[in-house]
Design a protein that fits this description.
mainly alpha; elongated; Transmembrane protein 161B isoform X1; Transmembrane_161A/B; transmembrane helix
């Protein structure tokens, strides 16, 4: 049995490409610097003095000790001061010093490299199916998911560190408990209605693991309690929903602003609304009576068979997810520009206020928008990346095939089998071997049969659906909030 083979070659080539190309090309940098983003520059102290007719300091003629002392002088200006912000194109030298830029660059670039590895592996499998090799592209996908989740978690933790973040902390905690409640409700819904697949995954795992333990002389009715597993799944759902709370709210705010900016452009408004609604379409594709039964069971007049087979329906769901992610990445510059425009709107709103403000506070209000640009980019991309790579793992580990896209006459019957259909190896698999490599082969064989395609289908199918659901639910809550409380 070849443990690695072509998979190791593909991985080594990609690692070499990262080392050689990573220093010269960055897709993350291109997204920021080559898509026409415009940032707003805060006025200098001299410009504010001239606008406010504030006389120069009497000590101006004296030499100051350093540059920072000269530019940290504080004075007050009217909030209604007519300040016109200058603009500049976002360039690499501007963003390299921003907060979370290195994390943003690494996530986006590594996701791209993992995507290339996955695509090459899938093409290779079309002609040379991988049976005895370890699919290393799944390791790449898993690393991308873990890194994206870690970044979202670190961004959420920032809301718990500041003393002025009481509202944000409360929001995260409340949303976490709300998602915990929703997850518990989802987990008890009959799978003939909502086909999350966890019930079948548990049965497959329990049966195959019990068979394996019995083969080893360890008799057990099952290695894990269903209630305990579902409780752990609910905790994971709650955590993911909590870390997606502020990315979803941020996304809703930018979407609301874009709809107002493009009020006169109906085509762009339609495109934005379609992009917003696509995650909802993905969510309802897991509701069996209105999706699978309609497309794979019902026979329409004039046809002698359903529109799609089970496998083709699964592939259709995956294609819609990939299409959704592509649309949202394409629209990313629009959303980031809507965020950068907050600096302009903050200035315009301030002009309607009475009172005075210091020059430092005013400059910080403008500069803070650009300073957190990479944080906003991470909040926009990380949920999409998690959803996309869960989809890849769902497709590959669930053993679905792309062949029907190439040949429509292919009748793919590769439907996920249950644990009872899996056949354990002959006595060869459980006989003690002298060679260490044989022991490793037997261990991998056993793991493959315990964690079979039915188990993976339930795990990653539910993970994909829940990510889309929580992302859409949070953005919807944010959009409702904006529609009721946002200023016109």
């Amino acid at each position: 049995m070849a443990l690695l083979g072509a998979q190791l070659v593909i991985t080594l080539i990609m690692i070499s490409v990262i080392q050689k190309l990573g220093a010269h090309f960055s897709f993350a940098k291109w997204l920021m610097c080559s898509t026409g983003l415009i940032r707003y520059l805060y006025p200098t102290n001299e410009e504010l003095r001239q606008l406010a007719n504030i006389p120069k300091d009497k000590n101006k003629g004296k030499k100051t000790k350093n540059y920072n002392e000269k530019n940290s002088e504080t004075f007050h200006i009217d909030r209604c001061l007519d300040v016109q912000l200058e603009t500049a194109k976002v360039c690499y030298m501007d963003i390299i010093h921003l907060k979370f830029y290195s994390e943003y660059q690494w996530l986006v670039d590594f996701s791209l490299y993992a995507f290339v590895v996955y695509i090459i592996t899938e093409i290779y499998q079309l002609w040379f199916p991988i049976r005895d090799e370890v699919n290393l592209s799944m390791i790449w996908c898993l690393l991308v998911i873990l890194f994206a989740f870690k970044l979202l978690l670190s961004l959420t933790v920032q809301y718990f560190k500041g003393e002025e973040s009481i509202g944000e902390r409360s929001t995260c905690i409340v949303m976490g408990f709300m998602y915990l409640l929703v997850a518990m409700i989802v987990l008890i819904i009959d799978e003939n209605t909502l086909e999350i697949g966890l019930e079948n995954a548990y049965n497959c795992f329990n049966e195959s693991a019990t068979t394996f333990l019995n083969k080893q002389g360890l008799y057990s009715s099952g290695p894990a309690s269903k209630i305990f597993i579902k409780f752990c799944v609910a905790i994971w759902c709650s955590t993911l929903g909590a870390v997606l709370t502020f990315p979803g709210i941020r996304m809703a705010k930018m979407h609301w602003d874009l709809l107002r900016y493009f009020k006169e452009n109906r085509v762009k408004q339609i495109l934005l609304n379609i992009s917003f609604a696509l995650p909802f379409i993905i969510v309802i594709l897991w509701i069996k009576p209105i999706s699978r039964d309609y497309l794979t069971v019902r026979i329409f007049s004039g046809r002698n068979m359903p529109l799609l087979s089970d496998n083709n329906f699964e592939i259709l769901r995956l294609i819609i997810i990939i299409f959704t992610v592509c649309v949202k990445v394409y629209l990313m510059p629009w959303y980031l520009q809507a965020y950068l425009d907050m600096a302009y709107h903050r200035t315009e709103d301030q002009k309607k206020e009475a009172g005075r403000i210091t020059n430092i506070e005013f400059q910080k209000k403008i500069a803070a928008v650009f300073y957190y640009l990479c944080v906003v980019a991470l909040q926009y991309l990380a949920p999409l990346i998690i959803c996309l790579y869960f989809t890849f793992m769902y497709k590959t580990l669930g053993e679905f095939q792309w062949k029907w896209l190439i040949d429509s006459n292919v009748n793919n019957t590769n439907v996920i089998s249950s644990g009872t259909e899996e056949k354990y190896p002959t006595s060869r698999s459980f006989v003690q071997k002298e060679e260490p490599t044989e022991d490793l082969y037997l261990t991998l064989d056993s793991l493959k049969l315990i964690f079979n395609a039915g188990v993976y289908k339930g795990i990653f199918g539910f993970a994909t659906w829940w990510t889309c659901f929580s992302y859409f639910a949070t953005t919807s809550v944010g959009l409702i909030y904006q529609s009721y409380f946002s200023r016109n």
